[in-house]
Design goal:
This protein is an alpha+beta fold and 183 residues long. It is built from three helices and ten strands, in the order αββαβββαβββββ. It has one domain: Alpha-Beta Complex (tt1808, chain A), CATH 3.90.1570.10. The chain has helices at 10-18, 43-60, 113-126, and strands spanning 28-31, 34-37, 64-68, 84-88, 104-109, 131-136, 141-149, 153-160, 165-166, 176-177. A six-stranded mixed β-sheet has the order 3-4-5-6-7-8. A two-stranded antiparallel sheet has the order 1-2. The chain has a two-stranded antiparallel sheet with strand order 9-10.
Amino acid sequence: MAVQLKRWSRQEYDKMIDAGVFAEDERVELLEGEIVQVAAQHAGHATGAQAAEEALRLAYGTGFTIRTQLPLIVGPDSEPEPDVAVVRGHWRQFRTAHPSSALLVVEISDSSLDVDRHRRGRIYARAGIPEYWIVNLIDRVVEVYRDPRPDAGYGTRLVLGAALTITPLTMPSATIAVLDLLP
């Protein structure tokens, strides 16, 4: 007999959080119905998240919130906590509910590179997030994914080296040096 795993809905997951099922310092997230433990961060990952947060805060300015490692509701079975997400509006708007969309999501990646490319990419594309960046610490590049296709991930992938710049789709007046995103 095959073993079947229980798939959790976002509502069930949120009830578990509210009930204190997970310890305060336990880092978990809901990805496609599975509760996944998030690996501890090493210094390079943490520095990369801070670099992305700072660069995006400067690029987007007022009217946008730059959320770092906070929940994002992206479907009935997924509530990831991206390393950095750019959302429209002021942070006070999210006092009673997490945002359900983002303009841009950034993951800082080394050991999770395969998951970030495939699983997270599929989740973010399905949610219609227009742009997804992976700061690839292994190859010291930024992978830019655009053209979300709900059933097939992202249609466009660019790989940008440290000497290049990126212009976010939703902030065409801004230019970010790839080097500014790399720790």
